[in-house]
Prior knowledge:
This protein is mostly helical.
Amino acid sequence: MEKSLFEQMGGKYERQGDYLLPCLTVPAVENQPIGIWGQRHKRYLKEHHRILYYNLLTACKLNSYLADIDRQAEEMFSRLVKQMAERESVTEELKAKDQMAWVGRMNNIRNRATEIVNEELIYR
């Protein structure tokens, strides 16, 4: 009997009753923690880019891809907040002098940075 393509590529079959079933295993994947940015991107991929989502999922690359996106987004967010705060003179001195003004300006900066990260990385 001629070998199937699966057997020619090194695969093996196992007899289960009257059937020959292929012996398949899923490669071990290192689970990396995924933060809020990665979760948002995952939801976006699931809803708007299903083919890419399922290709990454079936190739066992989804978790590492999302962890990388999460890391990039967190770094970008931190860098943007720091740069905007320096540019707008939102300092520890302002925090000590007028806490409510500092909180309001920092919230504004963080919201703008979130919008930029969402636009540049998450929802693309």
